[in-house]
Write a structure and sequence with these properties.
Elements (H helix, E strand, L loop, with lengths): L6 E2 L5 E2 L20 H25 L3 H6 L2
Antiparallel strand pairs: 1-2
């Protein structure tokens, strides 16, 4: 092995890929699946949707299907 991290094999060929890169796990990027963040986001979006439907019914006097039928 020379100072650049490459290895010369038994045939005299330079092997640049002999040194493995460091592998690490990024703990900050774990925001997929059933996580606390995902559940809080789903709950907040559901609350916004529910309040929006109530406001729509109060403003129009019709439910969602009635409001869509009048379009």
């Amino acid at each position: 092995m020379n100072s650049s991290g490459s290895i010369v094999d038994d045939q005299g060929k330079l092997n640049n890929f002999a040194v493995e890169p460091k592998v690490y796990v990024d703990q900050q990027g774990d925001r997929t699946g059933f996580t606390t963040y995902a559940e809080m986001l789903n709950g907040r979006l559901a609350m916004i949707g529910f309040i929006s439907l109530i406001a729509l019914e109060l403003l129009t006097g019709h439910g969602v299907l009635g409001a869509l039928a009048s379009l």
